[in-house]
Amino acid sequence: MLVHGAWADSGSWNAVTALLQAAGYTVDAPPNPLRGLPQDSAYQHDFLTQNPALAGQSVVLVGHSYGGEVITNAATGDSQVKALVYDDAYLPAKGEDLKDLTTPGSCFYVQDLSNVFNFVPFPGAPSGVADAYVKPSVFPGCFANGLPASEAAVLAATQRPLASSTFTDQSGAPAWKTIPSWDVIGLNDNIVTPAEQLFMAKRARAHITEINAPHLSMISNPGVMASVIIQAAQATS
Fold first, then answer.
1. pLDDT in tens, 83-106
2. In what order do the strands lie in the sheet with 207-211?
3. Which among 23, 67, 172, 187 would be 20 to 30 A from 91, CA to CA?
4. In terms of Cα–Cα distance, which of 44, 4, 15 is closest to 159?
5. Whole-prediction pTM value?
6. What is the rounded radius of gyration, in angstroms, for the C-alpha atoms of the chain?
7. What are the chain's domains?
């Protein structure tokens, strides 16, 4: 089960999905609502536990970027999740939030978030909450570095926004405390710095794979991502 991050959608997993299906695996890539960590984690947890298609199945749960924070919370206490796989992702400990884990060297590490995001109101939003979109001028070199300029421009135009409250939503008890974890770290990631990724991965005692790839490594290097997911599946089957 593949969970995308912020400013993306399930289509970001298309190449990885095709490789896993060709290898004989059943793949689900449900939407991540991007409405807040509690809401998004609950959505993925319900998809895991209330979906008849997954009943009795062993699951490898995969998260990219913010999706890593989501799976860290969604899988807690779910015995059918046998492995967690993180891709250029956040692996928060209890009480941490995205702001805590965005460190110097990240192009999102700024004093004024309006320098990198456009904030747009949405109907029914709580007071002070808006949709955060990565600025078109920031997206290609920051979020989609390493991809062709034309592809980065399409991804910027089709990005799905993240509710701004998510930046400070605190994470709960981490599933990686009890579930074996794997982590693919892109050494050219401009969002979650490689040093921060390595710190979180070691803290979670994850099996680490480092690659020369940008933040969107499931797009730039889908073969590596699929291979690590298969490793996790085979190791925990």
1. 999 999 999 999 999 999 999 999
2. 2-3, 59-64, 81-87, 181-186, 207-211
3. 23
4. 4
5. 0.97
6. 16
7. 2-105+165-235 (3.40.50.1820)
